[in-house]
Design a protein that fits this description.
It is a single chain. The protein is mainly alpha-helical. Helix content is 80%, strand content 0%. It is built from three helices and no strands.
Length: 86
Protein backbone atom coordinates (compact mmCIF):
# COMPACT_ATOMS: atom_id res chain seq x y z
CA UNK A 1 0.00 0.00 0.00
CA UNK A 2 2.90 2.38 0.71
CA UNK A 3 4.02 2.20 -2.93
CA UNK A 4 0.76 3.84 -4.01
CA UNK A 5 1.67 7.09 -2.27
CA UNK A 6 4.42 8.04 -4.72
CA UNK A 7 2.23 7.98 -7.87
CA UNK A 8 -0.46 9.91 -6.01
CA UNK A 9 2.11 12.49 -4.94
CA UNK A 10 3.38 12.76 -8.54
CA UNK A 11 -0.15 13.33 -9.84
CA UNK A 12 -0.83 15.95 -7.20
CA UNK A 13 2.47 17.67 -7.94
CA UNK A 14 1.55 17.74 -11.62
CA UNK A 15 -1.80 19.34 -10.81
CA UNK A 16 -0.16 21.90 -8.53
CA UNK A 17 2.38 22.70 -11.22
CA UNK A 18 -0.44 23.35 -13.66
CA UNK A 19 -2.33 25.53 -11.20
CA UNK A 20 0.46 27.66 -9.80
CA UNK A 21 2.49 30.06 -11.80
CA UNK A 22 6.21 29.53 -11.24
CA UNK A 23 6.55 33.21 -10.35
CA UNK A 24 4.20 32.72 -7.42
CA UNK A 25 6.36 29.89 -6.12
CA UNK A 26 9.52 31.94 -6.63
CA UNK A 27 7.91 34.79 -4.67
CA UNK A 28 7.36 32.37 -1.78
CA UNK A 29 10.98 31.20 -2.14
CA UNK A 30 12.10 34.80 -1.65
CA UNK A 31 9.83 35.10 1.38
CA UNK A 32 11.45 31.98 2.88
CA UNK A 33 14.93 33.43 2.30
CA UNK A 34 13.77 36.61 4.06
CA UNK A 35 12.50 34.58 7.04
CA UNK A 36 15.83 32.77 7.21
CA UNK A 37 17.69 36.09 7.22
CA UNK A 38 15.46 37.46 9.99
CA UNK A 39 16.02 34.33 12.09
CA UNK A 40 19.78 34.74 11.67
CA UNK A 41 19.42 38.33 12.88
CA UNK A 42 17.41 37.24 15.88
CA UNK A 43 20.04 34.62 16.67
CA UNK A 44 22.63 37.39 16.97
CA UNK A 45 20.38 39.31 19.36
CA UNK A 46 19.39 36.36 21.57
CA UNK A 47 22.42 34.28 22.57
CA UNK A 48 20.39 31.91 24.76
CA UNK A 49 18.48 30.57 21.77
CA UNK A 50 20.91 31.44 18.98
CA UNK A 51 21.92 27.86 18.18
CA UNK A 52 18.29 26.78 17.78
CA UNK A 53 17.41 29.84 15.69
CA UNK A 54 20.40 29.22 13.42
CA UNK A 55 19.31 25.59 12.97
CA UNK A 56 15.77 26.63 12.08
CA UNK A 57 17.09 29.33 9.76
CA UNK A 58 19.17 26.74 7.92
CA UNK A 59 16.16 24.47 7.52
CA UNK A 60 14.05 27.30 6.13
CA UNK A 61 16.85 28.26 3.71
CA UNK A 62 17.20 24.64 2.58
CA UNK A 63 13.48 24.46 1.94
CA UNK A 64 13.66 27.63 -0.15
CA UNK A 65 16.51 26.16 -2.18
CA UNK A 66 14.58 22.94 -2.78
CA UNK A 67 11.59 24.92 -4.03
CA UNK A 68 13.86 26.83 -6.41
CA UNK A 69 15.19 23.55 -7.77
CA UNK A 70 11.63 22.26 -8.13
CA UNK A 71 10.70 25.28 -10.23
CA UNK A 72 13.84 24.99 -12.34
CA UNK A 73 13.49 21.27 -12.99
CA UNK A 74 9.77 20.56 -13.02
CA UNK A 75 7.73 23.66 -13.67
CA UNK A 76 9.85 25.94 -15.85
CA UNK A 77 10.55 23.23 -18.49
CA UNK A 78 6.81 22.53 -18.70
CA UNK A 79 6.13 26.15 -19.53
CA UNK A 80 8.74 26.17 -22.29
CA UNK A 81 11.00 28.67 -20.56
CA UNK A 82 14.72 28.18 -20.34
CA UNK A 83 15.79 28.13 -16.63
CA UNK A 84 19.08 29.78 -17.69
CA UNK A 85 17.11 32.86 -18.72
CA UNK A 86 15.49 33.25 -15.28
Amino acid sequence: MGHLKVPLFSRLLGKVANLMDSNAILHEVQQLYNVSDRLDSLAEQHPLVSETLITISGSVRSTATLLEVLVAMKITPLSGLDPADA
